[in-house]
Amino acid sequence: MRCTKAEQARTRAALRLRVADLLDHIAKETGDGRYRRAAGHVLGGKGGRPPVDDAAALRLAQALCADGTSKRAAALTVARIYSAAGNVTAMAERIRKKLGRK
User: What confidence tier does 102 reach under pLDDT thresholds 50, 70, 90?
Assistant: First the structure.
């Protein structure tokens, strides 16, 4: 007996969920995040880091630039205000790049 395309799709989806659950379980047991990422890929998740919401920081940096501050100085000033401890340089660079796209 042949399965319809809809039945095949449901079977594949169920199998992907079971594989993802198994990978999540392995990740919890081993503490290895690679399995959690693999589960995300199995479910069709987007790879890479999640985007950072810099909207408020970017608005402030744009206002500083509108007042004549250089993009570099504005990005550094905003990063000092908004960044988590120790991440000032990384945030300043990220804001500077985003300012360049605007």
Answer: low
CA dist 68 and 46 (Å) reads 39
Query: Could you read off the pLDDT of 82-96 as tens digits, one per residue?
Result: 987 778 999 999 999
The one-letter code for the residue type at 5 is K
Residue 83's region, left for phi above 0, alpha for psi from -120 to 50, else beta, is: beta
Element (H, E) at 50: none
Q: What is the pTM of this model?
A: 0.56
Average pLDDT (66-71) is 95
What's the rounded Cα separation, in Å, for the pair 31 and 5? Answer: 38
Q: Where are the domains of the chain?
A: 5-42, 55-101
